[in-house]
Hints:
Blueprint: E1 18-21, E2 32-36, H1 41-49, E3 54-57, H2 74-84, E4 88-91, H3 93-98, H4 103-111, E5 117-120, E6 123-124, E7 135-136, E8 138-142, E9 149-150, H5 151-162, E10 168-170, E11 177-178, E12 180-187, H6 189-192, E13 199-204, H7 207-215, E14 219-222, H8 227-246, E15 255-258
Parallel strand pairs: 2-3, 2-15, 3-4, 12-13, 13-14
Antiparallel strand pairs: 1-4, 5-8, 6-7, 8-12, 9-11, 10-14
Helix pairs in contact: 4-8
Amino acid sequence: MRRIAPLELAETAWDNVGILVENPRPLAGSKTVLLTIDLTDAVLQEAVDQHASVIVAYHPPIFRPLKSLRLDDGKAAIVLKAVVNGISIYSPHTALDAAQQGVNDWLIDGLTTGIAGTKAPIKPTPSTTGSAQTGMGRVFRFDDSAKGITVDELVLRTKKHLGLPQVRLAAVSQDHVIRSIGVCAGSGASLLAGLKVDAFVTGELGHHEALAANALGTSVVLGEHTNTERGYLRLHLQGTLQEMLQADQAFADAKVIVSQIDRDPLVIV
Length: 269
């Protein structure tokens, strides 16, 4: 995982990444890794049922310091149950956001398939820890020769790439022509501030942030927080990690699976 998403790329001032639980008694004979966005109690039980010895949880299940380990505390209970069942936990979170071929690259590439243009991070990683291609968010600017797309086409591309029946839209106008797109998987408010683009695709924004974006000429498409992240596990990370493990003779029979239970807690009803 550190080869895929070096931890030096993470927002270490506030994030919590890397090995969060290193089990002293890993599940004997297991070479199964379970990928999930959120590690809930139901997903942990799924890992137990699948005999997984490692969970890669994109969002860190231990985010703020735990003052005690008690079963009446949901986060602590997950840690305790993982340890009892021989499971270790790793979280890449913002390191995977910033990495080349990470979550944000996957997001912008899926929205701009077939369009000529240039791609760059919105907030590049400091040169001491990353490269010109790593950093938070992505912005894609169409080449002069490329035809702009409509808001409706961007919505259709977003739905198709994320596998969603609907998204939320705050459009400047229905005939707004899109020639530049910014993205941020998850919550993108901090990266939208000061960004000059025709459209911005993210998981969630506040009401006033969407209004402010429209006032500055930016249409906003919202897919809900984890819906902008989850597809990456199945469409990219699973295969990449499986291939890397199988290249090592010691893990040639390892199996990487994606949680079938993990889902966004918010639905439109």
